[in-house]
Amino acid sequence: MPWIAVDRNRNNVVGRTTLTPCCFYEPEGEHRDIESYWNSDETIKLRKDLLAGKRPKGCRLCWKAEDNGITSTRQRINEGRLEEYKERLSQTKMELPPTQIKYTVGQECNLACRMCLPTFSTKVKKVWDILGKTQDMELDTLMNTPDYILENRKHISYVDITGGEPFYHKKAKNLLRELIRTGDNEHITLHITTNATRIDLDTVALIKKFKDVVLTISVDGVGDVQEYIRPGCNWNKLSENIRLLKTNGISLQVASTISVMTILRLPDLEDWCNKNDIFWSHPGLIDKPGELSPHNLPYQLHYLVPEKYKKYVEPEATHDPVNFIKQLDQYWKTDITKVMPEWKRVFDKLHWKQSDHLDNLNNVAEKYVNG
């Protein structure tokens, strides 16, 4: 990726969105201009370190995945593109321009997913404003115009489009139509992250004109679980749209998240993907909002966590998810226990914050038992 791509990390350590080789990379500095970033000191050093077989700390998420036996983004990208671009590895200061570009069409979205952030969804921002909840992330304004793509389209082979929801407004389709008009669609592969609720025949016809297209569909559950976690989503309509895409030969993969709301039901989603012959990529961890991070799962539910996800609930809890979930339920006039009955244990019994008190009682009891 450091030899071919320009992306950005929206959750970086410098506190602002900055240009990176992929969305997981954790940069040391801040980069806001593609031209200066491409051969910056940090990017050149990253290339040199990788060629030397080192493990740059900015790539720690991929190293962590690989050490845990999970196929990393690094490995997936290398499997599909390393052979095509291996001649670039002879350079650390690049004369060739990037061939893969991210395009963010903005925060406009038709859904208000419970684990999303106002930075990425206008609907979520409305909910948070009403709840009086604030965020500590800046509005993502990097790479949200098509200018660089249009100016360098002859050199670009991959366009990665995200939102918001790319098909919720005209910006994404306008770019695709312009690339078709100039004939650049014939050498460009599209990778679009979408909730797939706004798919129609016109959209399918448009994306099929490109060299190739892969849609990453954001799905976090099956049936009413998906509808609960992603308010505004209709499962039947989503299923119909997925069938339309598959019928037209569009490559699909499902991307999901590991959160306090999904961690118990992910096996159901994985089974659904297998039955429908859809690639299910390893889900990503929710870090923000902190209340929904998986390590904050109420202790009453830990015994239900599937074995392969238990490591995500081992860290000590840092936030209270219950009140946030209650707030969202009150706003949406929903009830998590109606969709996921296992959560009745959380509301019917002692709250997880009282676990210290239970430990103290247990220690006292042990003294009596042990004489």
How would you characterize this protein structure?
The chain is α/β, with parallel strands linked by helices and 371 residues long. The protein has a domain of 237 residues: Alpha-Beta Barrel (TIM Barrel). The chain has 15 helices and ten strands. The protein has an eight-stranded mixed sheet with strand order 2-1-3-4-5-6-7-9. Strands 8-10 form a two-stranded parallel ribbon. Strand 5, helix 8 and strand 6 form a beta-alpha-beta unit. The longest helix has 15 residues. The radius of gyration is 22 Å and the shape is globular. The N and C termini lie far apart (64 Å). The model has no long low-confidence stretch (mean pLDDT 88).
Key phrases:
two-stranded parallel sheet; eight-stranded mixed β-sheet; TIM Barrel; 371 residues; globular; alpha/beta
Biggest sheet character:
8 strands, mixed
The gyration radius over C-alpha positions equals 22 Å
Uncertain runs: none
State the helix count: 15
What's the rounded overall pLDDT mean?
A: 88
Q: Numbering strands along the chain, what is their spatial order in the largest sheet?
A: 2-1-3-4-5-6-7-9
Q: What is the end-to-end distance?
A: 64 Å
Q: What is the β-strand count?
A: 10
CATH class of one domain: Alpha Beta
**Which range best describes the helical content: under 10%, 10-25%, 25-40%, 40-55%, 55-70% or over 70%?**
25-40%
